[in-house]
Amino acid sequence: MTSLYRKSFVWFFLCLTLSHPAWSADGIEIPGYAPATGVERSYHVQKATETDMSFWFDKPGASAMTMRGAFRRRMTMPSRDEDGMRVRWSLSADLPAGTAGLADSYQMNLLYRTSLTAYGTATLEFETDLNGNPRTLSDADQIVAHMREMAAGGAPAAGGSAARESGGYDIIAKIEANPLLIVAALVPEAQLLATGQSYQAETMEMGQASVASRDEDYGGVNVPVTSTWTLKSTDATAGTATLSLSEEADAAAFSQSQQPVIANLMSSFAERAKSLTADQLASVKRASKNRSVELVVSLNDGSTLEASEIVTVTTGDATFRTYTHIQREDMPAKLPLPAVLTAKDLQTPDLGIEPLPSAKTGPGILDELSTPPAPPTASQDMAAAADDDGAKAIAPVSLAVKSAEVALSPVSYDHGLNIMLTPEGAAAFRDFTQAALGRQTQMLINDNVVMEPWMREPIMDGRIVLSGTDRKDLEALAEQLKAPGAKIVVRLRP
Description:
The protein is α+β, with helices and mostly antiparallel strands. It contains 16 helices and 20 strands. It has helices at residues 2-5, 107-119, 140-151, 161-164, 168-177, 180-186, 188-195, 251-257, 259-268, 270-274, 278-284, 339-342, 365-369, 381-392, 423-435, 471-482, and strands spanning 22-24, 27-30, 41-52, 65-80, 85-90, 123-128, 134-137, 202-204, 210-218, 221-235, 240-249, 287-298, 304-315, 318-328, 397-408, 415-421, 441-445, 448-451, 463-467, 487-492. The protein has an 11-stranded antiparallel beta sheet with strand order 7-6-5-4-3-14-13-12-11-10-9. Strands 18-17-20-15-16-19 form a 6-stranded antiparallel beta sheet. It starts with a helix and ends with a strand.
C-alpha cells in the first residue's frame, strides 16, 4: 500500500508495470495506470468552498459564505514512454449544459474566466510521472510573458521599478520559481485524479486499512500527515473498485505552522481579540486540517474514473471547507455528491469590483483580468453605432458614502475596503450600472481614478468591495471616504 499512498507526493518513477485486474484469496489486484494514448476523455467537475468566520463577527452566521463552480474539462494523453507521459488539458469557464440552479450562483466560473485571461491560455500541456502527477509544464515562458505584459498595462515589461510595485509581479515571481503553480491553479483535477492512480499493480484486501505517514512543509514547518487507505467495494460488472483515503495533519505541528495566519486574523479583529477569554484565546490558537477522498478506479487500466474530495481547515476559530467532485463523462456516477454542489438555490457572496493596484502604475493586472465583452459582429455594427449616442447620454454620478471600512475578506482571506453608499447613492449607482452594462467605467475618489472596471452586471445593494491592493492604500482610501461630505464619482471611461 506504500506506493498507493505516495502517489500524490512522489514525482519520479523509472519503470512501468502493466497488469490486468484479478481477484484472489488475498484480495483484489488494481492494475498499474496505463491509459490509452490519443484518446480524449471528458470530465465533469464540480467545486465549492464554504467559509465560516462567525466567531469573529457580532452577528453569528453573517460571515458564512459559500461559492461554487461547475466545469467541463477535456484531457488527452498524446504520448508516453518508460519515464512518464505528456498530457494535454483543454479548459473552459463555461457552465456545462444541464447544471443545476441559477448561473449567478456559480461565481467560481467568473473567477476561473479571470484566471484564464490572466494566464492567456485555454490549454495546458505538461509532463507527468507514471501516476499522472504533473512534473514539467510546457510553454511556461509564454504564459509568464503574457502575465508580464498584462501587469505592465499591455506593454512588454522587461523591468522598471514602478511596474514591479504592482502586486501582480509577486504572483509572477512565484510562478517563475515554480511553474507547476499554474497547473495547480488551472487544473487541480490532474492531481486529484492522480491520487487514485499507481504506476504499478497493487493488491488490496477488502476493508483492511493501510496506514502510512509523510511530512508536508507549511511555511518552513514540517507537519506530519497520517494517511489511511481502504478498499471499500468492487464492482465486477463495471470493472471498478472504490477506495477511500483519509488524511489528518498533526494538530500540534499544524497549529504551529498557522500562527502567522492566526496573528494576522487577530490583528484584523483587534477589538474582538481584546475581549477573548483565556479558553477562547487557546481555541483561537489551535488549528487542524483533514482530508477525505473517495475514488472509483478502473480495473481495466488503473485510471481514476470518479473522485470526491472534502478538505477542512480550521484556524483561528475560522473554518474553511472545499468540495471537489470529478466524474469521467463516459462512466456512470457512483459516489454521492454533497448538497452544496447540487442545490438549486445557493446564497453567494458579492464579489464586488476590483481596483487598480496602484495609481502610479496606470492600468494593471487587475483591470486586465476584468475582460471586456467580445467585440460586436458585423451584423451588430448598426446597433452598436446607434448605441454610441446612448452611451454619451450616460452622465457621471456622484455617490454619497455611508460607511467605509477595511476588513478581512472571508472569501479571499485578504483585506478589502467595504464601501456602503447612502440610500440615495445606492439608487443612483444602481441606475448607472444598469445603463452602463457592457462598458468600461471609472471610479474616482478626490478626482483620482482608483479603478476602471468593466460593468458586467448591475449593482443593486449599494455596496462596493475594493480588494487586491495594498492594505495601507485601502486604509488611506477609507480615511478619505470617512471625511464629511465625502463622495465617489463614477463615469464611463473617456
